[in-house]
């Protein structure tokens, strides 16, 4: 070893093939049972993230799919309609007006075609509903601003008497849906009982547009006993 303290020990004299640390050397490079595991999990995904973007839930068959036939929650479970009808649920489209007004997606569920609702009829329906709801709920509309001023000036008597435009427009929408249902009944080849019917928007809180159709007899995803509710119905079918 060199006697020069400023230079330190000679690298050749201090070389040790086993290392100079006093910590025991762990020859194994595998993780311990309680460790973080291997770099890749059993499904070939990295521990720091997946290998790619998550699948779109709307493209997988299930309650999020546009064509999925939901059980009918608008009738009694003891009613024959609960067994013979299903609900095709049209979801809200938040890209149109955000949360200023309820608007619905114009993505056509092809399962409506056998029920007698063509794509043209569906898009015309959605366009009419969305346009009316935007005028009714948008806070920046001239009539809505006028109604707010009048309600403040009269101590909300203007609103209590039903003079606001929003109530009249919503009644107009409900009347249009009733006429649409009657038109579908008249056009139905198998009788009024098999015609598609739109559930009033007040029943869904304007969160969904539910269309009642005859049961298309599409198979549902299988559910284990743990996934079933107290009524025995799969949670995926709710």
From TrEMBL:
Keywords assigned: Endoplasmic reticulum, Membrane
Q: Member of which family?
A: Belongs to the ERF4 family.
- Protein name in UniProt: Ras modification protein ERF4
Membrane topology note: Peripheral membrane protein
Q: What positions does the domain Golgin subfamily A member 7/ERF4 occupy?
A: 87-210
> Quick one: where's region Disordered?
1-65, 217-238
Instruction: Give the UniProt subcellular location, in the record's own words.
Output: Endoplasmic reticulum membrane
Q: Where is there biased composition of kind Polar residues?
A: 11-31
Q: Which GO terms describe its biological process?
A: protein targeting to membrane
Q: Name one GO cellular component term.
A: endoplasmic reticulum membrane
InterPro entries found in the cross-reference section = Golgin_A_7/ERF4 (IPR019383), Ras_palmitoyltransferase (IPR051371)
User: Which branch of life, at top level?
Assistant: Eukaryota
Q: Tell me, how does this one assemble?
A: Interacts with ERF2.
């Amino acid at each position: 070893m060199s006697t020069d303290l400023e230079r330190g020990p000679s690298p050749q004299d201090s070389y040790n093939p086993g290392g100079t640390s006093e910590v025991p050397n762990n020859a194994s490079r595998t993780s311990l049972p309680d460790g973080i595991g291997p770099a890749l999990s059993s499904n070939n995904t990295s521990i720091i993230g997946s290998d790619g973007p998550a699948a779109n839930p709307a493209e997988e068959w299930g309650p999020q799919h546009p064509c999925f036939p939901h059980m009918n929650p608008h009738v009694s479970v003891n009613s024959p309609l609960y067994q013979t009808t299903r609900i095709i649920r049209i979801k809200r489209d938040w890209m149109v007006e955000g949360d200023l007004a309820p608007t619905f997606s114009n993505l056509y569920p092809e399962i409506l075609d056998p029920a007698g609702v063509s794509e043209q009829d569906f898009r015309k329906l959605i366009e009419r509903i969305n346009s009316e709801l935007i005028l009714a709920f948008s806070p920046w509309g001239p009539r809505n601003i006028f109604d707010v001023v009048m309600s403040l000036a009269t101590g909300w008597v203007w609103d209590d008497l039903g003079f606001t435009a929003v109530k009249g427009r919503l009644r107009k929408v409900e009347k249009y849906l009733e006429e649409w249902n009657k038109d579908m009944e008249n056009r139905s080849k198998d009788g009024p009982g098999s015609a598609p019917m739109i559930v009033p928007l007040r029943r869904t809180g304007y969160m969904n547009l539910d269309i009642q159709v005859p049961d298309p007899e599409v198979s549902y995803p299988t559910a284990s006993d743990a996934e079933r509710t107290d009524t025995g119905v799969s949670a995926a079918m709710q």
